[in-house]
Design brief:
Layout lengths: L1 H10 L3 H12 L4 H8 L5 H40 L18 H15 L3 E2 L5 E3 H4 L11 H4 L16 E3 L5 H10 L3 E10 L10 E11 L4 H16 L6 E8 L2 E14 L2 E4 L4 E11 L1 H6 L8 E8 H9 L12 H6 L5
Parallel strand pairs: 1-4
Antiparallel strand pairs: 2-3, 4-5, 5-10, 6-7, 7-8, 7-9, 9-10
This protein binds phenylalanine (PHE).
């Protein structure tokens, strides 16, 4: 009997076959268990001898079962390790990852550059009341500049008595908000989205500007010129840039100047700092006394400059991108071509 089961244990090919052997021998209805149960009907000394012997047999079979079980588990593990091995030295498969959009990247860069010059960041809403967007900036309702702004107006239902709102056409309303909140002296930039109904190679209906505002007791156009040149050198990473100040007109600055930067087109490549072309990048000037007044700042005590720069424009120049519209088409092939996406 013992030999029969030891042989069965040894030849069980897997754990379930082994379990069958265990049940047949030691299970409740197993052969050994049945013999054990039979002990009760024996004479005392017969029972003693048979019981001792049965116990030995049972223990031996039990030990063999355990040993075989451990052996089978080891073998199963070995087989798995052989079958499922992994070469950790293989190079990883390339995986596409998301990246920061070039315009966001440029916003972060310019914020850092202006921060080095002491400018904090100010913010305002993209849906702006027409008072902040126009009136406070010395553009009264009948002013022709209102038409030139190609404004998106917010719908108002009949009976809605909230003041009229627009999608802000420039970041200049943030000048008013910042001065009203913080007073003077003040040195802030305000990067953000602005909207105008305009669409061609260099215009999109949504684009980005960064407003600059610096008010103190004796800030002048000379300070403006230095700040802009310093910014351009740092931003375009060139030792020097040539800027051109063109006399211009904005209702909210007096005097006003538009600023162009030297650039060139060579073999379809846009280059910055050199060449025969000028690219307009910003409007600027000395903040108009009426604007200071509208924001609660005394123009007899304070003065300073403001500028509004096209972020997408300077991003195009920095990365040599000819068509502004591509920035906002989310075309992965385009983003990858310019190295903006993996
Ligand atoms: N807000 C003007 C524009 O959008 C730019 C500007 C800002 C001009 C500040 C002067 C001063 O064109």
């Amino acid at each position: 009997l013992k030999a029969k089961y030891l042989t069965a244990v040894a030849s069980a090919a897997d754990e379930s076959a082994l379990e069958e052997v265990r049940v047949a021998a030691l299970g409740k209805k197993g052969e050994i268990s049945a013999l054990m149960a039979g002990l009760g009907k024996m004479e005392p000394d017969q029972r003693k001898a048979a019981g001792a012997m049965l116990n030995v047999v049972k223990d031996e079979i039990d030990a063999a079962l355990r040993a075989r079980k451990a052996g089978l588990a080891d073998a199963a593990l070995d087989a798995r390790l052989k079958g499922e091995w992994l070469d950790v030295t293989l190079p990883a498969r390339p995986r596409r990852v998301g990246t920061i959009h070039p315009v966001s990247q440029v916003m972060e860069e310019l914020t850092a550059i202006f921060a080095d010059m002491g400018f904090a960041v100010a913010e305002g809403p993209q849906v702006e009341s027409d008072w902040y967007n126009f009136d406070a900036l010395n553009i009264p309702p009948e002013h022709p500049a209102r038409q030139e702004h190609d404004t998106f107006f917010m719908n108002r239902a009949a009976g809605d008595d909230r003041p009229p709102h627009v999608l802000r056409t420039h970041t200049s309303p943030v000048q008013i908000r910042a001065m009203t909140e913080q007073g003077a002296p003040i040195r802030v930039i305000a990067p953000g989205r602005v909207y105008r109904m305009d669409m061609d190679q260099t215009h999109t209906p949504m684009f980005h500007q960064v407003e600059g505002l610096c008010i103190d007791r004796d800030i002048s156009m000379a300070n403006l010129k230095w700040v802009l040149e310093e910014f351009c050198r740092a931003f375009f990473e060139v030792p020097s840039v040539e800027l051109r100040f063109r006399a211009s007109h904005f209702p909210f600055t007096e005097p006003s100047a538009e600023v162009d930067i030297r650039c060139s087109w060579e073999g379809g490549q846009l280059k910055i700092g050199q060449g025969d072309k000028w690219m307009e990048i910003l409007g600027s000037g000395m903040v108009h006394p009426k604007v200071l007044k509208a924001a609660g700042v005394n123009p007899d005590e304070w003065q300073g400059f403001a500028f509004g720069m096209g972020i997408d424009r300077i991003a195009m120049l920095k990365y040599g991108i000819p068509d502004l519209r591509a920035f906002f088409e989310s075309d992965l092939r385009w983003l990858r071509h310019y190295g903006f996406a993996a």
